Amino acid sequence: MAKCAVCGKGAHFGIKVSHSHRRSNKMWKSNVKSVKINVNGATKKLYVCTSCLRSGLVERA
């Protein structure tokens, strides 16, 4: 699973609990996109989460 290159956000793990309280393992995947961004004047293709994209932490190429 990919991680965000800016904030390090990745998959989260936990336990899903149904209405009858049966428990099973669950994985929540973060919304990570492959984006071309400018890094020190050069263009790189990195994985960035959508919250970092919306907040303006990265500059798209």
Q: What portion of residues is helical? A: under 10%
Order of helices and strands: EEEEH
Straight-line distance between termini:
24 Å
What value does the Rg take, in angstroms? 16 Å
Q: Order of strands across the widest beta sheet?
A: 1-2
Mean pLDDT: 95
Shape, per Cα inertia axes? elongated
Number of domains: 1
Helix and strand composition category: mainly beta
Largest sheet: 2 strands, antiparallel
- Oligomeric state as shown: single chain
Q: What can you tell me about this protein's structure?
A:
This protein is mainly beta. The chain has one domain. It is built from one helix and four strands; from the N terminus they run E-E-E-E-H. The strands form two sheets. The chain has a two-stranded antiparallel sheet. Strands 3-4 form a two-stranded antiparallel ribbon. A hairpin with a 2-residue loop joins strand 3 (32-39) and strand 4 (42-49). The model has no long low-confidence stretch (mean pLDDT 95). Keywords: Ribonucleoprotein, Ribosomal protein. One of its GO terms (cellular component) is ribosome. This is Large ribosomal subunit protein bL28. GO terms for molecular function: structural constituent of ribosome.
Task: Put the structure in a nutshell.
The protein has one helix and four strands; from the N terminus they run E-E-E-E-H. It is mainly beta. A hairpin with a 5-residue loop joins strand 1 (12-17) and strand 2.
